[in-house]
Design a protein that fits this description.
Blueprint (H helix, E strand, L loop, with lengths): L2 E2 L3 H12 L5 H19 L5 E6 L3 H9 L7 E6 L3 H12 L5 E5 L11 H12 L4 E4 L21 E5 L12 H4 L1 E5 L14 E2 L23 E5 L6 H14 L3 E6 L4 H5 L6 E4 L12 E4 L8 H17 L3 H13 L2
Parallel strand pairs: 2-3, 2-4, 4-5, 5-6, 6-7, 9-10, 9-12, 10-11
Antiparallel strand pairs: 1-8
Helix pairs in contact: 2-3, 4-5, 9-10
């Protein structure tokens, strides 16, 4: 199931609920360590050198625990207590050219700007330009706002523990988060919190799309209409159509502006493409519609008016599926 996107205080509440069940921090740290190691193995090759930067908190403990699960990698752990005193040791390790740095310096508990020595240490890690796998939150990043606290690790990949934190999804945090993955099975109790924003996990798509029955045809599996693409912005129509193909509806009809019809149609094989005109007849029974990608040329506003009128005509047909599709489009484009 999708996991909720949490604030720092919500994550703390979840942890407290877990400890109340008798689960121990040591068990959770052990599971997180295994998850970190799994990601590190995917990001490196046998005999690669991995540098683990471990701080005082649980993130540091998580990162240290990963070491025992990396048997065919060369691994060094740098316990960072005093950034100024430990900077020479960092320089020595960086000179060995790590294939991956695991960042376990700080977690969600950081609540004030980093001091000058920590800023220098973090920036030196960033200057190395080595791939970085960060534990839960890039060190130095505010987990609620996504703002760096003076400086923050620029991760290649962030492995959020339990659930993503709000700051990881904020624009301010994007340059530091890199690819976001979630370690959801780390021994925490079932999350007692419900939020409006949720993160889908890969296992949510297991068994999708379902197998199709023999005694059916493509019309049995839905019809999507896409209205997209204008002069100079035809790529958006192509991307939308190809994304729709991956969702595997039975039929896809792409209506695009005549100025880009030929360039769009020649790049699609299993999508029905038609040039838009005010009298175009859309399919009578649509399951869903997508309106807007690439309708950004100067004439797009007029085209949107035509599209809206076309949807009103669909609604007038009385087909309930068309009504739902048409109303959805009108809410997006009043």
């Amino acid at each position: 199931m999708p996991v909720p996107v949490l604030s720092i205080s919500q994550m703390r509440d979840w942890e407290k609920a877990t400890w109340a069940t008798g689960q121990t921090e040591a068990e959770v740290i052990g599971r997180v360590g295994r998850c970190i190691a799994c990601r590190a193995l995917l990001l490196t090759e046998p005999n690669d050198f991995i540098l683990i930067l471990a701080g005082n908190g649980n993130n540091g403990a998580d990162a240290r625990c990963a070491r025992q699960h990396l048997p065919d990698r060369r691994v060094a752990v740098l316990d960072v207590q005093n950034p100024q005193a430990d900077l020479p040791a960092l320089e020595t390790q960086l000179s060995l050219g790590p294939a991956l740095i695991i960042d376990g310096l700080f977690g969600i508990g950081i609540n004030r700007p980093l001091g000058p020595d920590w800023v220098q240490f973090v920036e030196r890690v960033n200057q190395a330009r080595a791939p970085v796998l960060t534990v839960d939150v890039p060190s130095g990043l505010n987990a609620d706002t996504g703002e760096p606290q003076g400086a923050a690790i620029r991760a290649t990949e962030t492995l959020a523990v339990g659930a993503p934190k709000h700051g990881l999804l904020q624009p301010a945090g994007w340059p530091f988060v890199g690819r976001l993955e979630v370690a959801s099975e780390v021994g925490l109790a079932p999350c007692p919190l419900k939020t409006q924003l949720n993160w889908s996990l890969p296992e949510d798509f297991v068994g999708y799309p379902p197998a199709r029955a023999v005694a059916t045809h493509k019309g049995s599996y839905g019809h999507l209409a896409i209205l997209a693409g204008s002069l100079g912005y035809h790529g958006a129509a192509l991307l939308a159509a190809r994304a729709a193909q991956r969702a595997q509806p039975g039929l896809i009809t792409l209506c695009t502006l005549e100025a880009v019809y030929h360039v769009v149609a020649t790049q699609l094989q299993a999508v029905m493409v038609a040039p838009w005109n005010p009298n175009l007849k859309l399919p009578a029974a649509l399951s869903a519609t997508l309106v807007g990608p690439g309708l950004a040329a100067p004439a797009a506003a007029d085209q949107m008016k035509m599209i809206t009128c076309q949807f009103w005509r669909l609604i007038a047909t009385g087909d309930r599926r068309c009504q739902r599709a048409g109303l959805a489009a009108i809410r997006l484009h009043p």
